């Protein structure tokens, strides 16, 4: 029924949204010059059969449009983040694997010498799809700390520019050895871990608002997520631009905690040595946290598997689970 919130109405709205996105003729016309020599057809409204107008045939419409996107021997490149460096392979072997076509538009190529190599995708493109644009390659940065600019196709250049500011690279998962390879990265890692814990502490302090504003000088992911960076962050680390800024924020934050009664009240006492020295999670040089209860101890005092708080919790749990011997 019109105006209802039924599943059918929702499906119809989704269908219209998908169709509007797919049938963008303006972008298709811009590509027509590059695709004129290939057999790929442009997706125009007139090419959609009448029987597919109903949202009930959405699956058929998707299948139909997918067939128009490429051919049996070629499909356009997909937006993807590549984390490996392509091995050196002879040009003729790569072009043969491409069916002697440009990866970008599917145009058949008679001579491989006219093709241009894209270091990001590891494929060859025609001069319409490759304008000798240059970019740093994520895999080369993360695996070799190599910031040189390499030739990439127009598609790759647009993709890399679009993700440049996005924090999508977890160094700990991709290549933890980078912290050993790069002293700059290791220093940033230490300060980042301290700021990560400090920010959590400052958010609980009603006097910490002014200090928290200083954190706005850097992207929020740098102080809220560990090991997470964008390409822009990595370039700034290499240039020495990010570390001084992080250190300034760290100095202001620790100064606040040291002089704030509310923050000091949230410190930990080492239960092993019972020293009056207050411990905080951000003091990574001397503080060790129990992985279970997150309590802080001196590194020199901590004994694995012997956390006093965890032992108390376990004792209370055992006591509560033991049936009472006193008759009701």
From TrEMBL:
The source organism is Accipiter nisus
* An example molecular function term from Gene Ontology annotations: phosphatidylinositol phosphate binding
Q: What InterPro entries would the database entry show?
A: Autophagy_HostDef_Reg, RH_dom, RUBC_PIKBD
Top-level taxon: Eukaryota
- List residues of the Rubicon Homology domain: 116-317
Q: Which UniProt keywords apply?
A: Autophagy
Name of this protein = Rubicon Homology domain-containing protein
GO BP terms: autophagosome maturation; autophagosome-endosome fusion; autophagosome-lysosome fusion
């Amino acid at each position: 029924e019109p105006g209802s919130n039924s599943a059918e109405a929702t499906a119809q709205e989704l269908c219209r949204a998908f169709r509007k996105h797919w049938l963008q003729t303006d972008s298709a016309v811009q590509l027509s010059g590059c695709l004129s020599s290939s057999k790929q057809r442009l997706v125009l409204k007139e090419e959609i059969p009448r029987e597919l107008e109903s949202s009930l045939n959405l699956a058929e419409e998707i299948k139909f449009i997918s067939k128009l996107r490429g051919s049996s021997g070629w499909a356009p490149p997909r937006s993807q983040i590549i984390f490996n460096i392509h091995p050196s392979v002879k040009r003729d072997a790569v072009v043969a694997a491409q069916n002697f076509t440009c990866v970008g538009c599917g145009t058949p190529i008679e001579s491989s010498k006219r093709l241009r190599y894209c270091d990001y995708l590891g494929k060859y493109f025609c001069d319409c799809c490759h304008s000798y644009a240059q970019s740093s390659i994520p895999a080369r940065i993360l695996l070799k700390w190599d910031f040189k600019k390499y030739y990439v196709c127009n598609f790759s250049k647009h993709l890399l520019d679009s993700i440049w500011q996005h924090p999508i690279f977890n160094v700990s998962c991709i290549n933890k050895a980078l912290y050993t390879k790069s002293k700059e990265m290791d220093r940033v890692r230490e300060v980042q871990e301290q700021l990560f814990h400090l920010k959590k502490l400052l958010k609980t302090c009603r006097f910490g608002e002014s200090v928290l504003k200083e954190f706005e000088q850097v992207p929020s992911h740098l102080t809220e997520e560990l090991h997470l960076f964008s390409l822009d962050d990595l370039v700034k680390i290499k240039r020495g631009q990010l570390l001084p800024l992080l250190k300034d924020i760290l100095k202001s934050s620790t100064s606040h905690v040291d002089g704030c009664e509310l923050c000091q009240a949230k410190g930990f006492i080492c239960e092993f040595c019972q020293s009056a020295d207050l411990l905080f999670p951000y003091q990574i040089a001397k503080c060790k946290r129990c992985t279970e209860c997150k309590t802080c101890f001196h590194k020199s005092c901590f004994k694995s598997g012997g956390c006093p708080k965890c032992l108390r919790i376990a004792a209370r749990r055992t006591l509560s689970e033991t049936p009472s011997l006193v008759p009701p």
